[in-house]
Amino acid sequence: MQTLLRETGFTEGMTRVYKIFEEIAEPSERAKRIKKEYGQGGASWPLEGYGLHGYDSFHAKGLRLQWRDAEGEKEGYISWSAVEREIGALILTGEYLPEQKKLDEHAIEDAFEKDEIMDGEFREVETEEGLDAFAIPDEPESYHSAKRNEAC
Asked: Is the pLDDT of residue 74 over 80?
């Protein structure tokens, strides 16, 4: 599959989309950038049998998909925010560009570089005097409202 993607030039665009996820934290901003990356256009291909046979991005609703199933020709739309979520899930699972690292692997590497990972030694946490492990501290007086005091 990756060979086919490389031959058709899809990996260049996929790599640019992957970088969007590395560089932008806000999902809505990523969706805007993905829409811009896809641009206006589409493709279709002849299809014998069932399955996806086209898409385009000319509509404001999002990405339009065309497919054929047992009931005949169909079309539907997927919003750009849904496209962003789906691509994000594929990246997290390593299915989007298998030769790229998963995003969580980047986070682990960054943590090692910054020495943010805790050591593996177990230490007892000291508790306040008079409290056991299950105690709940008393509420401060400021939590009580005037109405509650009037009702008492």
From this structure: yes
